[in-house]
Structures are given as structure tokens and as C-alpha cells.
Write a structure and sequence with these properties.
By secondary structure, the chain is α/β, with parallel strands linked by helices. The protein contains eight helices and seven strands. It has helices spanning 20-31, 43-55, 70-84, 108-136, 158-178, 199-202, 205-211, 226-233, and strands at residues 11-15, 35-40, 60-64, 90-93, 140-145, 183-190, 244-247.
Length: 256
């Protein structure tokens, strides 16, 4: 059974790989045997991660990518094809951001940035890389990183919640279109996992109050996303498409 989780011979793209969960996902996929394409805007961080992965016997390529810019994504695909002579078999749409504010106070530019990154960016990356994969006739897996706020909302997260709900619903639509090509499209919806983006909030008074509403009474550990990620990326999840795996310690089922 362990062989079904093996990614040897596969090529994986991870967007937003310069920090947080994206960085962790890249390490997990590499440890499972995949070659990895690390995509983000902060090249110095990507190159450091690529060097770390290669020092452990893996293979990694750092590519500059702005997921809100179609030409940037196409350039990253060209670099990938030049290096590996193949588009990615596994596409992890991890890039995302938030601008938190009451919706009546939020600047339009902030709303647009969140939607462009978290929703349009997922569409652009999948369109470009999955489109290239279709031309090869090879099967593959697209994993869109959603969030539990796609299923339950919270104060000041209108834009983020809307973007992640759209991402999850788009995943299902992509799945039925890509099934004929042997490409599975699923979503992974984490709850609260500490990263450099949210650590200040999670350790605040409000964050600690929220922790008490998680049935398991703690935030997630990064390694607790490794199993679900590998399930969706590998042959272990070969009959899964259009699914969302929630990893949140039971938070979405607990009353507000």
C-alpha cells in the first residue's frame, strides 16, 4: 500500500513555496520522491529551499511567478519545460493572502487583490499548467488549497472567505471537466496552522479565544497536512476528484 503514495518519477509544482505551508508542501512532495518546481515571487527564499532539497538528494527548480499575472505563469511553464521537458504532473495551487477588515471599511483595491490572488490565480495556474498537461496525454493531479472559511465564516474575512469558497466550488467544476483527461482536481481545506503570516494573530488574545472553540483544543501541526496532501497527489487517491479534505481538528462542526 505504501507504494501507492510513492511519487518517484513525478514532477510537482507548488505555488507560494517561499514560506509557510507552501514551503512545507514542497518538502513533503520531495520526500515522497517527486521533483519539485518551487514558484513564488521571492526568489532568494526559493533558491534557498531548492538548495536544501537538493542537499538531501532531491531535485528542485526555483521559478519566479506572480499568480495574478498570466505572462508570469506562462514564463514559469516555459522554464519548467526547458528543465524537465514536461509540465508538472502534480499542481499545488497554494498561493494565497488575506486583507482583514470589516467589508464596509475595506478598500476596493484590497478586495481585488485577495480575489485576484486566491481565486483568479488558482484559475490561471491550473489553466496554464493543466492545459499543458492535457497536451501530453498524461494523467495528473491538481490540488487547490482552500480553507475552512470556505465553509464557515468569521468577522473581517469577507474577501478571504469569498475567495476560498469560490476556489472550492471552482475545484468541483474543474474536476468534471478534467476527468476525461485523467487529471484529478481536489481541494485541501486547512483549519488554523501557525505560519509566519498568522502567528501574531494566533498568539493574540482573540486567537487564543478561538483556539478554545477547536474541539481538539490546539492548532494544527504542519506534518498533519502531509498525509492528506499525499493522498490527493498520489495513486492512493486515484478515484478521488472534486473532493475537499478538511483538516481542522473538528472546528467547522463546532458551534460559533
Amino acid at each position: 500500500m505504501a507504494d501507492r503514495f510513492d511519487l518517484t518519477g513525478k514532477l510537482a509544482l507548488v505555488t507560494g513555496a517561499s514560506s509557510g505551508l507552501g514551503k512545507h508542501f514542497a518538502r513533503v512532495l520531495s520526500d515522497a520522491g517527486a521533483k519539485v518546481v518551487l514558484a513564488a515571487r521571492r526568489m532568494e527564499r526559493l533558491e534557498a529551499l531548492a538548495a536544501e532539497i537538493e542537499s538531501k538528494g532531491g531535485e528542485a527548480l526555483a521559478v519566479s511567478m506572480d499568480v495574478t499575472d498570466a505572462s508570469s505563469i506562462e514564463a514559469a511553464l516555459a522554464v519548467t519545460l526547458e528543465r524537465f521537458n514536461s509540465p508538472a504532473d502534480i499542481i499545488v495551487n497554494n498561493s494565497g493572502l488575506s486583507r482583514d477588515d470589516f467589508f464596509i471599511n475595506m478598500p476596493e483595491a484590497d478586495f481585488d487583490l485577495v480575489m485576484d490572488t486566491n481565486t483568479k490565480g488558482v484559475w490561471l495556474v491550473a489553466k496554464t499548467f493543466a492545459g499543458a498537461l492535457v497536451k501530453t496525454g498524461k494523467p495528473g493531479s491538481v490540488i487547490n488549497i482552500a480553507s475552512i472559511v470556505a465553509k464557515r465564516v468569521s468577522h473581517t474575512l469577507t474577501a478571504y472567505a469569498a475567495s476560498k469558497a469560490a476556489c472550492e466550488h471552482m475545484t468541483r467544476s474543474m474536476a468534471i471537466e478534467m476527468a476525461r483527461y485523467g487529471i484529478r482536481v481536489n481541494a485541501l481545506a486547512p483549519g488554523y496552522f501557525e505560519t509566519e503570516i498568522n502567528d501574531e494573530f494566533l498568539n493574540s488574545e482573540y486567537g487564543q479565544k478561538m483556539l478554545k472553540r477547536i474541539p481538539m483544543r490546539r492548532f494544527g501541526e504542519h506534518d498533519e497536512l502531509a498525509g492528506p496532501l499525499l493522498l490527493l497527489a498520489s495513486e492512493a487517491g486515484s478515484f478521488m476528484t472534486g473532493s475537499t479534505i478538511v483538516v481542522d481538528g473538528g472546528q467547522i462542526w463546532n458551534a460559533l
